[in-house]
Structures
1.
Amino acid sequence: MTYGTLGAAVPLAVLVALGMLARRSNVLQQGDERVLNGYLYRFALPALFFVNLSATQLTADMGRFVFAVLLSVGGTVAVLAATARALSLPEDLRRLTGLTAAFGSLAFFGIPFVEFSLGTEEARQLATLGVATISPLGVALALALLEGYRQEGVSRWRQTATTGRRLATNPLILSIALGFAFSLGGWDLPRPLLRAFSLLAGSTAPVAVFSLGAHLWGKGVSRLSWTVPLSVARLGLLPAVSFFVAWALGLSCMERTVLVLLNASPVAVNMVVLSHRYAFRTQEVSSLALLTSVGSIVTMVLWLWLVGGCLP
C-alpha cells in the first residue's frame, strides 16, 4: 500500500477529528451541525452539481458509466431485498436494507474522498456525474420507503403524490437538472456568477467531512445483530458489485475506480435526520451511520488500493 493511497484517508480523518473536537470542546453545541448540513444541502452541494455538470461534455462513454452506476446500486438493492425476503424479515427491516444500499453519503463523503485521493478533473467530473445519477434515485427511494412506512393504509397514489412534491422542491435535484440543461444547451453563466458558484462548490468537501465529525460525536452503537451485517453490505457488497459491473462493461481504470469508491461511501448522515422525522428505526439508523462512517475511512483506502493500482 503506497503512501499516496494512505494519504487519501489522512485529510478525511483529520477533518472528522476536528469536527469531533469542536463538539467535545463546545465550540459547536449539539444541533449546530444542522446549520452546516443546511449550508451544504441548500448551497454548497447544489453549486457543486451545477458547476461540474454544466461544464461536462456528455459522451457515449459517459452514458456507459451512468448505466454502470445504476446497475451497481440496483443490483445490490435487489440482492439485499431478495435476502431480506428469504429470511422473512419484518417489513420495516426490509425497508432498512433498501435504504442502506440506496442512500449513501456519496456527496458528503464519496466526492471528498475522490478529490483527496485522485485529484484530477476527470475524476471530479466522473464523481459528480455518478452522484448526480444516484442522488435523485436514492432520495426518491428513501422518501418512498419512509412515506410508505408512515402512511401505511394510505393509498399508493397519495404516497406517490407526497413523494413527488418533496422531490420537485429538492435543491439537489433542481441543481442537477439545471446543470444537465446548461451542458446540453451549451450555455454559460456570466463569469462573476460562475466564480461565486465555484467558490461555494469548493467548500463542499472540507465542510462536509468536518460536519460529519461534529455529527458523530457522542453517538453510540446498538442493535449490532442488524447493523453489523448491513454495514458490511454497504462497505463490502456494494463496492464489490460495482467492481464486477465495471469489469463486465469494460469501463476504463479511472471510471472503475471512481465507481467503486463512490459506492464504498458510508450510509448518508441525512438518513439519521429522516429516521427521526419518520420515527423509523432510529437506533439502527444512527448506529449504521456511525459504523459505516468510521469503517469507511479504512475500507475506502483498501478499495482504492485494490482497484486503483492501474492509475498512474
2.
Amino acid sequence: MLKQIKGLHHVTSLASSASVNNAFFTNVLGLRRVKKTVNFDAPDVYHLYYGDEVGTPGSVMTYFPFQNAARGKRGVGEVGVTSFSIPFGSATAWGERLATFEVENVTADVRFGQNRILFDGPDGDRFALVETDDDRTPWTGNGIGADMGIRGFQGADMRLADGGATAELLKFMGYEKTDHADNVTRFTVSGGNAANSIDVETLPDAPRATSSAGSVHHIAFAVENRARQLEVREALLDTGYQVTPVIDRDYFHAIYFRTPGGVLFEVATNEPGFDRDEDTAHLGEALMLPSRHEHLRATLERQLEQLP
C-alpha cells in the first residue's frame, strides 16, 4: 500500500464560457482566481484555477472553458460530485446565498452524518458544500466571511458501474474504507491534507457518461514532491497501470493514468506552487503563459475572452 498520497490536489473540469465560469467561482462561491493561463495542448483555451489565497493543494478547482461547448451527459465512469468543505452551521446560509444567485437544483441532505448543500454549476456540473471540522483558512477577499468561507475540497464522488476494482485501487493508494450506506462507500486517506475522502457510488444500470461542458476531466491526488511522485509512478507501473511520463505543468509536475472505472487520475506534486511566477498579492491577475506558448501572447491576448 502506498503512503505517499496526501489527499486531493486539484479537480479539473470543462466549461462552455470563461466569463460565466469565472463569475460563478469568484462571485458566487467566493474563491480566489489564483492563475489565469492557457491549456498546454490548446493554447486558444484558458486554463483557470480557483482556490484559497495561494492555491494550496487540496483547494484548487480548475477549468478548461471551451467556448460554446455542448453540455456533457451524466452517467457512470465519471466524477459526479465535487465537494467543498464549509464551517459547521453554515449550510443554511449557503442555501440562501445560492438561491439569491438563482443557482439551479439546490438541495440539502445528510451523508455519513455530515450536512450538505448540493447544487449545479453553470454547465450542470454538480457540487456539494459539506459541513466539516476543518481548520484551513478560507479566502475571504471576494466578500464571503470566514464564518461561511470555503476551506478547500472535502472530497469527490465517483459514479461507477462497478466499484470493486476502483475500491482496490484506492486501497492500494493508501485509502481505507471508512463508511458505507446503500450504494455509496467512503474511502479516506489519513496523514495528509483535509481533502481526504472519496465516495464511490455504484450504479450498475446507469448509462455511461459523455464528457463535455460540466464534466470533470480528471481528478488529481497530491504528493509532496517529485521524488515521492516517482515512487508512486513506479508502484503503479509494477501493478500493471499504464502511466504517463512526468509532465511539467509549471505549477506542479503531473502523471496520469486511467482507472478501471473509467475516471482519469492524476498524481501532482505540491511543489513549486502558484507563486512561482507571480507575487502572492497579485495571483491570477495577469495572463501567464507556458514558455512554449509565449510567442503567441499578442494573438492570445487579442483572441481570448476578456476577464476581470
3.
Amino acid sequence: MDQQQVEAFVESLPNVQSSEAYGYRFYFYGDDHRMPFLTMANSDSEYDNRSNLSREGVFRVNLGVSPGTFRGLFPDAAIDPDVLDYTALNQFLPHPDYWKQSFLCILNPAGENVARLQDLIREAHGVSQARYDRRAPQ
C-alpha cells in the first residue's frame, strides 16, 4: 500500500478533514483540529529523524488507537523507544514519541499488514469520533 492509497482510504471515511504542517499530513475527525487520529510523514525533520524517511519512497503512518488495542499489540509494559528499529519497513511499532497516548506507527505497510492497518485506521477514526462527540455541545 503506497502513501496515496493510505490517504485515499483515510479520506473515504466519514467526516474527515486534513491539513499539512511541519512536513506532516494531519487527519482529524470533523472540525475539531486539536488531536489528529492519524498523521503521515515522508521526510525527516529536525524534530523527527528516527525512521530515516529520506529513503526513496519511504513513508510512515502514525495513528492513535484505543489503549486496549495498543496493549494487545505491544504487551510489554516497559516500552523503550530507544532500542526499537524505527527504520524497519512493514512493522507495527509504538510511536517513538507518542506511544504513551496509544499511538503506533508503521513504515510502508504491505501484505497482510495492509488489512490490519485499515482495521486500525477505522478504529483510530472511531476513537477520534467518540472524543469529538463527547466535546460537542449538548
4.
Amino acid sequence: MRIMLLSDEEVAYIWDFFNPDNFKDIDLIIACGDLKAEYLSFLVTVIHVPLFYVPGNHDVKYINNPPEGCDCIDGKLVTYKNIRILGLGGSYMYNGGIYQYNEKQMEKRISKLKLKLFLNKGFDILVTHAPGYKLGDGEDLCHRGFECFNKLLDKYSPKYFLHGHQHLRYGLIPRIRKYKNTTIINGFEYHIFEY
C-alpha cells in the first residue's frame, strides 16, 4: 500500500501545480494536522482515495469548517484494508488552546481506547500531530513530545508512528528515525512511503 503523509504546510507542487500522474499510485492519504481544510478537501477530491486526519494545535477552524470528504480519526482506532490505525491529534499544552493537552490529559485520552486496543490486539500505525518525547520533538514547551506516545510504542510495537508539528526546517531533524521496532516518520509538507 502506498501512503501519502502530510503535515503542517501546504505544498505548492501539490496544490497549485497538481498533476494527477504524479499521485496515481496513492492508496491512502494521512494528514497529521495544521493544514487548511480546503487543502485536504482538494486532495481527497483529485486523488480519489480515503483521507484520514488528526487535528494539529492550529486547527481550531476544523470545529466549524472540517475538511469535506475526509475522515477525522482523532481519538479513534480505525481499520483500513486490515491495517489498524490509531489517531491522537493535538500538541502539548502551551497556551490553553483547544487542541492542546498536558501529559495526564493525553494519557486519559489513550486510556479511553484501552478496550478497543485490547479487542483489536493493538494497532499498526500511530497517527499524531505531536511527536513522542525525545523522538523528534523540540526543546520548547509548544513542541515538546508526549511520553505516553513512547509508552504506546513500547507496549504495542506498531510498524509506523506518523506525526507532524516539528517542522523539518527547525534544525537538523531527520524525517525518518527508528525506535525499537517502529519506523517514525515526520510528515512535514509531504512524504510518500510504502506500507
